[in-house]
Amino acid sequence: MRVDEGYIKFNLNWEKKSFDFNDTDFSALNFYRQELFESGLIGAYPDGIGFGNISMRYDKHNFIISGSETGNLKNLSKEHYALVEAFNIKENRVHCVGLTKASSESLSHAAIYKINLNVNGVIHVHNQEMWKRYIHKLPTTNKDAEFGTPGMASEISRYAGKSHGVIIMGGHPEGIISYGITLNDAYNELHKYF
User: What average pLDDT score do residues 87-114 get?
Assistant: First the structure.
């Protein structure tokens, strides 16, 4: 694990207030987040630093994502999610609304939603065994692209043109992203290889 794991590297504009989050979307997000937590794909390291996150498209340009510093929590409620209302990958900026800050991997999720309007669910997990097994066998980002940066987002954009898939984060040991038309698709895509 890197020393900077879990830290937000983009310029964040956070409006600390609740947003309209319907029960159906919350239930879907929380169901898959709970499955991933119980599988150890989302969680926290012994030092308490959390890893992994999950998101779903809210509308054409916005998405809901699990919040920063929530990986160590077994159960999430609505206040543990943020709505990313705007982002600029080149300028390394994210604007979010919620009672928690958007995840440090928000730019990686944003890159997929931006490049592929068919995608409605993105999952980022950590698993060292899977990462080692599939690095350079599945689409793999450049090892010089660090997590949570425009470089990583740009690399992810190169591979996110299909309706679903798995991307190994070459510069983010243990980091894996899956995506799909639905959250269920993204989850199933990940479990093909887990």
Answer: 94
Q: Would the pTM count as exceeding 0.85?
A: yes
Band (9; pLDDT cuts 50, 70, 90) = confident
Q: How far apart are CA 166 and CA 139, in angstroms?
A: 7
Burial call 84-96: b when 16+ CB within 10 Å, e when fewer: bbebebeebebbb
Q: Please, which contacts does 161-164 make with residues 24 or more away whose CB atoms are closer than 8 Å?
A: 161/115, 161/116, 162/116, 163/116, 163/118, 163/119, 164/119, 164/189
Q: Does a structural domain hold residue 1?
A: no
Q: What is the mean pLDDT of the chain?
A: 92
In the DSSP assignment, the letter for residue 122 is E
Instruction: For residue range 22-35, list pLDDT tens digits in order.
Output: 999 999 999 999 99
CATH number for 102:
3.40.225.10
Would you say 57 and 121 are in contact if contact means Cβ atoms under 8 Å apart? yes
Q: Strand order of the sheet with strand 53-57?
A: 11-16, 93-98, 81-88, 63-66, 53-57, 121-126, 175-180, 165-168
> Residue 182 domain-assigned?
yes
Q: Taking residues 100-123, what's their average pLDDT?
A: 95
How many distinct structural domains can be found in the chain? Answer: 1
